[in-house]
Automatic annotation (TrEMBL):
The gene is dsbA. Gene3D superfamilies: Glutaredoxin (3.40.30.10). It comes from Undibacterium terreum. It holds the Pfam family DSBA. This is Thiol:disulfide interchange protein DsbA. InterPro entries: DSBA-like_thioredoxin_dom, DsbA/DsbL, Thiol_disulfide_DsbA, Thioredoxin-like_sf, Thioredoxin_CS. Residues 43-145 form the DSBA-like thioredoxin domain.
Length: 187
């Protein structure tokens, strides 16, 4: 959690393998941009019980190389539009090299202390917050929400877009609440 008076921290736990994360991504991106300097936004790729470690390693490696933002949508689209699995080290390496990323630099970054530490820290945070699925969003280190949580009151089985839409006002309210609580602590 950040100190009072600073930006409200918003952390998304996601996975490239997850169709729900893919459905949320563009709406969440727009929401983050709309928040401006009110929030500090971080993404953490889950390992999904160790089953998606190559995707997690790819995410943290590209982030460490300063290519995370540039490659984020390309990876999601490759998996969900082009049906690439990217479920092992070989396929993730082939993919990033095809995107013009230097293979040796990528491999060096993927084996770095920074990448290993982020993976371990993500697992610790998943356990700490008791996450059982993705996407999950933590606001200010205290409030957990997701499209599924926000959409629980919606009637029947609705399109995924309705759950995503239900999440945005919840995020707005949680960020506002966290900011107000910080302001009150400073008084």
């Amino acid at each position: 959690m950040l100190t009072p008076g600073k930006k409200v921290e918003v952390t998304e736990f996601f996975g490239y393998f997850c169709p729900h994360c893919y459905a949320l991504d563009s709406t969440l991106e727009a929401w983050v941009k709309k928040q401006g300097d009110k929030i500090s936004f971080t993404r953490l790729h889950t390992s999904y019980l160790g089953k998606t470690l190559p995707q997690q390693r790819m995410y943290f490696t590209l982030e460490a190389m300063g290519l995370g933002v540039e490659m984020h949508k390309k990876i999601f689209d490759a998996i969900h539009q082009q049906n690439l699995s990217l479920n092992d080290e070989k396929s993730t390496l082939e993919f990033v090299v095809k995107q013009g990323i230097d293979q040796q630099k990528y491999l060096e970054a993927s084996r770095s202390f920074t990448v290993r530490t982020k993976a371990v820290r993500t697992a610790q945070l998943e356990s700490f917050y008791g996450l059982s699925g993705v996407p999950s969003i933590i606001v200010d280190g205290r409030y957990l929400t997701s499209p599924q949580i926000a959409g629980r009151k919606l009637p029947g089985s609705l399109p995924e877009a309705d759950y995503v839409a239900a999440l945005m006002p919840v995020l707005d309210a949680l960020v506002s609440k966290a900011a107000d609580e910080r302001a009150n602590k400073e008084k």
